[in-house]
Sequence to fold (772 residues):
Amino acid sequence: DTESQGASSTGATPSEEMNGTGNLMDFLDEPFPDVGTYEDFHTIDWLREKSRDTDRHRKITTKSKESYWELIKSLLDAWSGWVVMLLIGMLTGTLAGVIDLAVDWMTDLKEGVCLSAFYYSHEQCCWTSNETTFDDRDKCPQWQKWAELMTGHSEGAGAYVLNYFLYVLWALLFSFLAVSLVRVFAPYACGSGIPEIKTILSGFIIRGYLGKWTLLIKTVTLVLAVSSGLSLGKEGPLVHVACCCGNLFCSLFSKYSKNEGKRREVLSAAAAAGVSVAFGAPIGGVLFSLEEVSYYFPLKTLWRSFFAALVAAFTLRAINPFGNSRLVLFYVEYHTPWYMAELVPFILLGVFGGLWGTLFIRGNIAWCRRRKTTLLGKYPVLEVIVITGITAVLAFPNPYTRRSTSELISELFNDCGALESSQLCDYVNNPNMSRPVDDIPDRPAGPGVYTALWQLALALIFKIVITIFTFGMKIPSGLFIPSMAVGAIAGRIVGIAVEQMAYHHHDWIIFKNWCRPGADCVTPGLYAMVGAAACLGGVTRMTVSLVVIMFELTGGLEYIVPLMAAAVTSKWVADAFGKEGIYESHIQLNGYPYLDVRDEFTHRTLATDVMRPRRSEPPLAVLTQDSTTVEDVETLIKDTDYNGFPVVVSRESERLIGFVQRRELTVAIKTARQKQDGVVSSSVVYFTEDNPQVAEACDPQPLKLRRILNLSPFTVTDHTPMETVVDIFRKLGLRQCLVTRSGRLLGIITKKDVLRHMAQMMNQDPESIMFN
Fold:
């Protein structure tokens, strides 16, 4: 009777043996630590994460019927998602407010200092002053430029040179501090962070990318980088900062910290909160997360993102960093409607945006590739300092590039009211004009407007060139603000041109119907807004979220149609030159394993063409169900670096039983050697339901590892078209897929193999997918 013989050798009774109780070999029924976590730079298995979460949920539901305490615990578990959202929203909003205030102060510090309180920015300093007149609202005795403070002279060549010198010096100091902090403490804090977050949300693991250090350093260096006057924005990095906050709060709840799939749902919502505070656009943030960043976005995540974005916007509004009770700097109030004929310049701006997007992506990727392959990449600090030096030296003489980019955009969006003191509003006024203040008719441009146009044209060229070299350096750098600046400058120039045409030629057939002399028909600020949307769309290829962000940002609700026209045109034009937006291009450049949902796979290849092992390669590394020893398994783990091993009935038949993960196998054997007596190198590892027969009592104790065996691995036959395989990988988020023919195991396809195959089919270098 082999059954009782097997039982007596383990010292348990046959009845116990049948139930598997009191059996040393089933020690794995207590969960052991570390199973189900992944290595760095590996891909998660969405299906597995999902089923693990369902199991956990089922356990909690059955337990909650047992006692009141368990019921309360289950309620807390259900609420934890909303609690995490609340915390993320509050922290993100607070950080965004602090960043805004600090950037404001440090940008002004480059030009001067407030004597009444050094921590006031220029604007705050002159608010509190009693000597400020309305015309000279920027000048007040409390605010002094550096030259005036040091030499006592505010005018003249000497003062200008001194101010110039100190402006450059401060800029260099800020950027040097930023790049040094990034290099020493958190190398992951550089760049915009959105490409990496897209990759992480698609199921890749980059340890430390969303860690506490990264959060701290990114927040500090973002302030320094933006204040140094470089051509970069704070929007992309704020998404990264928000996702770091999300990751931080996930670690407080085991529901999220132990399940990578659930954690990614939280990170999707955190990304929405990040955009919400970057632009003061909560709904735009949710749509941005849905359209641009997320990979897996169930309805539950949509509601949670909405809540997180709302809380973040509330918190930012409570801090009120701009002092105008608005969430953003660019709020505008236009009063004039737009006319059908204006769609022509709007669409032209859309074309400009698409062309600029293409130029920027190609130029920036080429430069980043040079940085990767040449000596340039070895000196990140030097590169940042040189670019900052060039930017500061060229930016100071031009009043439009000297100020911070967001102030520039804000001025370009503004409509010329009667109270504007800006150079852009220097029109020739009609002396006998008596009209209500807010509706000023179109007027001829004065000398100030022409000067401003020259300076804006120079600023446009400068911004276009310098942004290509700035994005991707080893400091936090966003892309939204510089792209919007390029578009806003181009748009404002076009707007003034159209306005002057309408004024001087109001008898032309295009202007006749809607532009009477003495009416206010063209708003140049609107053109700037449309141009900004077009350029941002050309670079990032967003459409829906872009339009929503733009009208939330500016409050220009009746201008949805012009914005939509420009966004769609810019996407069409840019797509004609290449399908990838800037983030996808950076993902490709860095070789992250990212399966884009938008990529079409149209080739007629089959699963056999892609699977490993190929004909020339050694056969697949497999485990058998009941004839492999512990020593064999350990050797296999040591000699290979595969993520897991298929389990077959025997090497002759090769009929597939299941799949076992490498990490779980390692942990299981290590734990068994520590906890279970009699497990030695020659012990047999078995994965079957019933116990193997132990011939003599002197045979070593066998080790049962059925619990870590995945009995339902995903399989396809060798004649499955690759199109279907790619779809399966995309939609189910698989990590690997086994290939069989009539039940026999032939090979394996991993996500990397799919990506390599896709790269090969597009005539790219398949080895560029370098992360293993």
The radius of gyration is 32 Å. The longest strand covers residues 744-750. The longest helix spans residues 68-109. DSSP finds 30 helices and eleven strands in the chain.
